[in-house]
Structure formats: structure tokens, C-alpha cells
Fold this protein.
Amino acid sequence: MNDDELDQQLRSWGSERVAAAPSVEVPHLEGKRSRPPLLAIAATVVAILAVVGVALIVRANRHSSAPAAATGGDSSNVAYSPHTSDLVLNDGDTITASGTVLAVPGKPLQFCDAAAPSTEAYDPFRDCRFGITVSGVKLSEVSSRRERAGVIIGEAKLTGVYRHGHLTVTHQARVPLHVPVDQDQRSPCAAAVARWVGPGSSGGFSFGAVERYKRSHPGAIVMQTELNVSRYKALVYVLTSGDPQPVRTALEPSYGEHLCVVRSMSSASQIHAAHKLLLAQMSAQRGSPTAPVDVGGGGLNPTTEQPMVEANVPVLAQGFADQIDAQPAGLVQVTVWLAPQH
Amino acid sequence: LPESRGEQFAVWVAPHLAVLSAVAAQHIGRDEAADVVQEALLRAWRRWSTYSEARGSARAWMLAILTDQIRRYRTRHLSRWRTTDTVPSESAAGPSGDRLDLENAVALLPRRQQEVVALFYLADLSVDEVAAVLGISAGATKAHLSAARAGLRKVFER
């Protein structure tokens, strides 16, 4: 059997396998939230804060808080208050970033922030959401290269020197396809690592008892969520504004060993203020690379499992970094597209 | 027209369901394929807004998630997987003479070659896409593909 015959056999085999594949239905998605664009989260959080004042009701999952992926950055581009100043970009800094290379005939080559542009239609052949000019890119080596009417786009991970809004490339690599990896959340309640919930289940707890407690004790609960500490284990996770013990006592009959109640390191007003700060920066700097392109709230800091608000910003300015660093430790997560390498 | 975001996702993923199911069945068997594909779909749903067409096709993105899910499944069911692993060797030795039992022959290949073959021939991805899904270089993908073809020829020529 020669190569062509084998190739043909394999293609036929592949087609037959697909035709005979077991039928699969899309699972019921209600209650298993897709991560909406951060702007949508922001709107939701603002609405909730406006109405409720203190409580952020989310089915927070750290699995979904991956702004680094959304910006094509990596973990070195993410920092938390009060340590974001390291990500401030200055002329002469060496940076590494992933993004879209856009080559339009007659125009300077552009390197564009590949941050997912919300739900609006976006034509990558036409413009950048935010971009800088770039030189030294080998267009023949970009990933996912496409061409339309003379315009070439592709993805690349570029390292180079940034100066006056221009990147001079010293190294170019392919952009790996982003594979979301769900990470288990750690339980802050050591003694309450719950028993197995059941195969394939993420818990699906009813938060009715928490809601009732909140109604009878306004301001006592800052946030409630479901914490997925492993594929088979989930907890009802409640962050309180004060002593967690009374809340724990009240909710234990409803959730038993699935309950984890801890004190929030940030108050509702601090969370609200941090969120307002990010939104204000987004509004004031709109159109500038130093304006957040997305702002979100209601997530959990992956290290502490404490409340967190987050922002994606192409370039972090010193003034904004100073404001963020004045926020409570770990409350604000910033993901920066063009961050200096240290 | 689908109205909810969930309905939009269902429509978006529909063209790829058969391929996802076939790839899963090839790697872990028909009985478990549906569960693993559904878990992959849930993960994709939760991450849907991070998908960018500029980074690759929807099919490649979904298959990257599925491949990772299959690896997790294997990790969780390692002992059972190892047991199952020996079955193809025995059955593939069985086909006599001229019968081309590709199913068993593919199952005889080393794991990575099986993955490459499934993604290339079954899911109809390009070499670049297979490389991206598996997180290896295009050169390595071609090498695995070439080794797989050589291995399959050997089985058939016995």
C-alpha cells in the first residue's frame, strides 16, 4: 500500500467514524454561566450595587477569570494591588506580547491587542481595537495567517523594544491556541473540604437559605458563590462583613459540610470604590491605550479566594498604577497587554 | 433565530458535535464519549467569550478543549484506561490476511500518534491546527503523522 492509498483509506475511515459517532446533545446550559464580556459583568455589578448596596451575588468561578488569555498575554502581565507598578511601561522597555499583526498596503505595520472585543462585530482586517506600529515582523511566520484584498493578518508572540508607541521586534514566535484550563479553587475552610457531590456535578446548590439570611441581616454578607474545589467537590462559599461564626451557625443546617464561611478582607464599600475607580479610568481615558478596555467585578482572587475586581488595560500608566496600588491588597487585578519584562 | 446566549452557543457548536463525539469515541470508547464531550462543551461554554476567530477555527478551539478533557479523563481513570489499552493490541493482531481493520490498527499506535491521526483524518484539521491543538510544533506533528503512517503500513503488511 503506498502513501496515497493509505491516506485515502484513512480519510474514508475518518468520514465513517464521524458519520457513526455517538450522538451528543449540547448540555443544559441554564445556570452554568458563560463568562460574559467584562463590560457586561461591570454593568451587572453596577446594577446590583445600585439596588442592593452591598451584596455581590455571583456564581463566581475563577475558571472564568482569565483576562490574561483574553489579552493574549501571559501570567507575567497580571498583577494585583498593591504591586501593579511593575507593569508600568516606559520607553526603552523590552516587552513580550501576543497579538494580531495587521498589514495594510501603504500603511505602517500594526501590532494589535487581541483582546476579545465583546459582542460587537469586529473586522480584524480593517482596524485594531488598540495597536502600536511595529517593525521587524516576518509576515511569513505569523500564525493563522489570512489574506483579504491585499490585507494580511496573523497572530504572533513578539518580543522587542518599545519606544514612542513603536515596537522594534527582536524575537518572533507562534501564538499557541489558547486552551482554557479549569483550575480547582482552593478552599479557605480547611476543615470543610466537602464530600463528593457526584460525578459531573458542580454542586448546583440552592442559595435560598443565604438569601433569607441576607434579608434578615442586611449587610452581613458581602458575597456568596459556589466554590469548586475539585471536579467532584463544591462548597457554598460565603464571605461576611463581620464575624463569620453567626452566619456559619445559621447556614449550617442548610448546607452542612458543604458550607464555607469566611470574613471578607474587603468591605462592600471598598469593592464598590475599587470598581468605580476602574470605571472612571475607563471613561476618562477612553480611546487612550492607558484606558481599561474591560472592567469586571464579582470574581475571586485566585490566591486568596477573596473578592476581586479586574481590569484589562493595553498600557498601564504610572498614575493609574498608583491609584490601584492604594486599594486593599489583592482587591484589584490588572492585566496589561504591553508590560515590561523585568 | 436563537435568542439566548445559550441557544446561540448551541447553534455555534452544532456543526462540530459529530466530530467531537467521533474523536472522543476514538480515544476513550463510545460508552464514555458523550459524557466527556458534554464536559468539554460546558467548559467551552464558560469560556466562549474568550474565543477569538483570529486565533483559529472554532473546530480547532473545541477540539483543543476536548483533547484536554480526554487527558483529564484518562488521568482520572488511569487504571481502567491501562486495562483497556491492552485490548486493541490483542484484537489488532487478530484480523487476518487482507482485511484492513483500520480501527484496530490505529488503536495500536502510540498515544500521541493516535491523537495526531484522529485530529488530522477524523477531525480534518490542518497540520498547523493539529499542532496548535496539541501544543506541539508543526514539524513534530508531521513527524508523528509520518510515523503513524509507517506504523499502519507495517500492520497491514504483516
